[in-house]
Amino acid sequence: MSGTSFSAKVDRVVDGDTVRVFLNEGDAQSESLRILSLDTEEVNAGTKPVTPLGRAASDRAKALMAAGDTLTITLPGTEPLEQALAKYRGNFGRLLTYITLQDGSDFQETMIREGFSPYFQKYGYAQFPDLHARYIAAERDAQIAKAGIWDQLANNGAIMRDYPALGVWWDLRARIIDDYRRIKTAHPDAALYNTRLDYDRLLEIAKAGEETTVFMELRDFTPTASDHVLFNTGSLKQPYQLFIPGGNMGGGEDIMRLILTRYRPDSEQEPRRSYAYVTGPTKMFPDNDTGRPEIIVTDPSQITDVPPASVFVS
Fold first, then answer.
1. What are phi and psi of 272, to 5 degrees?
2. CB atoms < 10 A from the CB of 307, how many?
3. What is the pLDDT of residues 172-182, one digit of tens each?
4. Cβ-based burial of 149 (10 A; exposed 0-12, middle 13-18, buried ≥19)
């Protein structure tokens, strides 16, 4: 595995895919890590049900990682450590990481092979090819053995989530994200940005009121009192929005029909593409340095499956 790596000591295991560690010797406060490529079931009530397999995954993680253990933490990029620590964070500000256990084994691979988690690809394949290949193999082994989540009736008492169907949707999303990664690798200077990874640059673009192309997830939307529609993306720490003037009933309905039919899933049972390239003028809302950056869409042609040719023109 290649990437930005460092050592950290375990404070405590939260559940099967979250652990708190001390980034530096002598730190009073630990940091929460959201472990990539895993999505174990829940031990606390939330948007997903609490299950026996969630409790079992948490117990297994606690058996593999104990307070005081030294882990190798790998972030999904090759930037200098300080930059990577700021860049690779999830919706709640948790660091997004891969973990190598104190004995040198791959925590993610172990949890997937033992059936405590699918190979979670909803937000992209594992960043490094060797991990991707190993996690696919581990998931196949778990499916052959009907381990854990792959035999829900035996291990949960009921079918709580349809993992085979979810895996097909997640794989579609991951393929779209992988295409974006390849484009950025082949054209590093392209005027093409990701709402999570390029947030600081998108802030600069919005403050300057420039046009750009953004690769973004079309997820939650909110009609406003003035008949417009806002799609929220990015994260709680890095908010970014798509603004559709008149998107409710004021002339932007064609844009909404495209998004809702082609891109935005209503639920896990009704998957869509989820990601799109959006091109348009940007600004800050409200119009000040503490607002949120937004991109304005007034025509369906601004939302595409592939980046427009204009992003490759220097």
1. -140, -175
2. 21
3. 999 999 999 99
4. buried
